[in-house]
Design goal:
The protein is mainly alpha-helical. 58% of the residues lie in helices and 5% in strands.
Length: 183
């Protein structure tokens, strides 16, 4: 099988179950942005040293990247069609548990954080902003069509998770972010 099909050469693509839509549709923007975020997460993780101390976090991110793929699948499935891998409340709770676990070792926030730190942490901040964009697209879809409401909760929590993960990675690597100056 070839990677190219030429079926998108006229500006259309297929949703799950084959419905053709414009590549500029909000639904395509939403699941494409999930793909972009997943790639940014992968890039961030590539900056982590290949050390045992990162193995637990990498396992969590493997699950997160898989779930983000599932979010994209949900967003690319037309209303009224069966979603093969639906996002569930349990997935949101899993993110919350991971956030709480990382926050238990982080200093409390006293100021706004400026994205940065080491390469992995800074890239997780970029992934967070991409996830926020995916969330905005998902909300736009939800305003017009049926969307699993847990998808919105999941991407919202995922951006929180990525923020905390960036802080966690930066603290652990000795390159914490800067905070806003008071003036």
């Amino acid at each position: 099988m070839k990677i190219y099909s030429k079926t998108g050469d006229k500006g259309e693509t297929s949703l799950v179950y084959g419905q053709r839509v414009s590549k500029s549709s909000v639904r395509v923007e939403a699941y494409g942005t999930c793909d972009e975020a997943n790639s940014m997460i992968g890039m961030a993780l590539s900056f982590l040293p290949n050390e045992e101390r990162w193995s637990e976090l990498l396992e969590v991110f493997h699950i997160v990247q898989t779930k983000l793929f599932h979010v994209g699948a949900e967003l690319s499935t037309p209303p009224g069609k069966k979603v093969e891998w639906p996002i569930a409340e349990e997935d949101v709770h899993d993110l919350e548990e991971q956030i709480d676990k990382m926050e238990s070792v982080l200093p409390a926030l006293a100021n706004f954080v400026l994205p940065g730190g080491n390469s992995a942490g800074a890239t997780l901040h970029v992934a967070r902003t991409v996830v926020r964009r995916a969330e905005r697209y998902a909300v736009r879809i939800q305003a017009e069509e049926e969307v699993n409401p847990v998808v919105i909760s999941y991407v919202n929590r995922l951006s929180d998770f990525l923020f905390v993960a960036a802080r966690y990675v930066n603290l652990d690597t000795g390159r914490p972010e800067l905070t806003l100056h008071s003036r």
